[in-house]
Each structure stands twice: as C-alpha cells, then as structure tokens.
Amino acid sequence: MRLPFQMDLSGKAAVVTGAGGILCSSMAQALAECGASVALLDLNRETAEEQAEKILAEGGKAKGYQANVLEKDSLKEAHEKILKDLGPCDILINGAGGNHPLATTDKEYFSAEDLDEDVKTFFDLGQSGVEFVFNLNFIGTLLPTQEFSRDMVGREGCSILNISSMNAYTPLTKIPAYSGAKAAVSNFTQWLAVHFAREGIRVNALAPGFFVTKQNERLLYREDGSPTERTGKILAATPMQRFGRAEELLGSMLFLLNEEAAGFITGVVLPIDGGFSAYSGV
Ligand code: NAD
After folding, report:
1. Cβ(66) to ligand 1 under 6 A?
2. Of 81, 100, 191, 202, which is most buried, counting CB atoms within 10 Å of its CB?
3. Mutational pocket test of ligand 1: of 175, 215, 269, the residue with most ligand atoms within 8 Å of the beta carbon
4. Model pLDDT, residue 1
C-alpha cells in the first residue's frame, strides 16, 4: 500500500473496529505499515482474520478478533486477548457502523397515496430496525470507547478517531436512524474531546463523503450493476463528481493521529468528501 506520507507508530497498539470492512481494513493496513501492532475487530471473525493475514503477509503485526461493538462482554473478552497479544491500546478507530434496509424508507418524499400502496413509508419503519441502526452507529462507538480508552489513562500519545458521515451535517433522505446516529457520533466526538482533554487523550472524527462499500452498495447500484438514481444525485452534489477511494481517508487519519502534526487538535470532525459539504447545490 502506498501511504500519503510516512509516520512512525512502532511500539503502539491500535484497535480498529469494523476492520473487516472496506474503509477500516484499509485503515488497519496503513496503521500496520507505519509499524503499529493492529487488533482488527469485526462481528465477522473470518473477514477480521483475513485482513489480519494480509497484513502479516506484508510483514506487519496484526491479529483478527471477533467482537460485537454492541455487547460489552464481547468487547471485554476481545480486550483481554488483545492485552495479552499486543498490549494496551494507544489508538482506537471506531469504524464499525452502517445503515440497514429495515431503517430505510422506500421513497425520499412522502405522499398520502403511499399509504394505500406497497411502499415502506416513515410510518412502517419498525422500532427494532431503527434501534438496530441507531445503536450500531452510536452505542457501537460509545461502548468500544469505554472499553479501550481505559488503557489510555495515564499514558502519553493516545488518541481516538470516530467515523462520522455527511449525514451528521444535513440528513440524507430515506435513512433517518443512520443520519441521527452519525450526528450523535459527531456530537459525542466533541463531548469526549472536552471530557478527556486534561488527561491528554485526543478525540477526533473523520466524516467521509461517499465511498462505495458493502453497507451502502444496495442504495448506490442495482443488482445488474447499473447506478441508481441516488448515485446520480450524489455525484451531481459532489463538486469533484466521483466517489471517494478508501485510500483517500488515510492521509487525514494519519494526520489526526500524529502527535507532532495534530497534538493541539481535538474535537474536530474532518470532512473528506470531494466538496459535498461545501456545495449548496447551486
Ligand atoms: P463496510 O460495511 O465495508 O464495513 C463495516 C464493517 O463493520 C463490516 O465489516 C461489518 O461486519 C462490521 N460490523 C457491523 N456490525 C458490527 C458489530 N455489531 N460489531 C462489530 N463489527 C460490526 O462499511 P464501510 O463503508 O467501510 O464503513 C466503515 C465506517 O464508515 C462505518 O462507520 C460507516 O458508517 C462509515 N461511513 C461510510 C461511508 C461510505 O460512503 N462508505 C460514508 C460515511 C461514513
């Protein structure tokens, strides 16, 4: 992997949740390439271990762990293993998250006729689907932070990076639970940055624009591979007129984790979005 710049993270242990996924596996690889020992956590043991194997094959230090960011016991169990395998956590990337069709309306705009049609409206979104998505993104950031940031107390050069989204600024249509949860992630990033400031633990977030990954591909491409109408709208609202590439998050990640470059930066949410959040549409 070609990194945007070199950085020395040797001697540091990094925990990455959602590390079996597209964006966070690339972050885990970059951290390992900088010399960190990386714990790759994912609900899906296979993908976490597969990504760890890739890092090992490149000569990096990594291990995959199964963990559910919504279950304290599961996180505790993974944490105990990580302490033995890699040592205390210096860097935490809270990457697990995503949307789900159960918390997605069929249409952008409601019309009264939808009530008589076979259309999933706002009124049809079930509490469990909404809670699932909200919790995955917000509680799934808070619980791993409680678990792993304890290791950071009393140690220098530790930092946390959350993953927010464009939804945190202005909600996207159809996905109210995901939007609300990412707004909560941005808010929590600021809250925790303040709370931990005097202990020297920095807390920041990335707000990626649009990257095609497992969790959103059904919204962006049809089964036959043709782009959906939503893809057209996204690209029209992204001044750079393209989706982002996973490796385009790495420079910002490394910068925010770097104590020399970003030692006085805490509580920021950095958009990496090809201009989406700057564009009014006119
Ligand atoms: P992805 O689906 O490729 O990866 C998400 C990973 O999280 C998967 O490997 C999944 O198994 C794991 N996961 C799901 N539930 C989990 C749980 N309960 N416990 C542990 N792991 C769990 O998606 P991605 O796009 O790479 O997402 C990474 C992060 O980036 C997410 O927080 C997402 O919301 C955010 N994000 C993505 C985009 C985008 O355009 N793709 C934009 C903004 C923000």
Report:
1. no
2. 202
3. 215
4. 83
Residues paired with 208 in a beta bridge: 272
Which residues of the chain fall short of a pLDDT of 70? none
Tell me the pLDDT of the chain averaged across its residues. 97
Ligand 1 binding pocket includes 216 (Cβ within 6 Å): yes
What is the CATH classification number for the domain harbouring 85? 3.40.50.720
Q: Whose CA is nearest to atom 8 of ligand 1?
A: 21
100 φ, ψ to 5°? -145, 145
- The Å distance, Cα 154 to ligand 1 centre, comes to 30
Q: Tell me, what's the pLDDT at 218?
A: 82
The per-residue pLDDT for 60 is: 98
pLDDT value at residue 57: 98
Which residues are identified as catalytic?
178
Length of the chain: 282
How many folded domains does the chain comprise? 1
Q: Please give the pLDDT value at position 206.
A: 98
Looking up tokens 């945007």 gives 4
Residues 225, 231, 236, 240, CA torsion sign = negative
Residue 180 lies in domain: 13-209+244-267
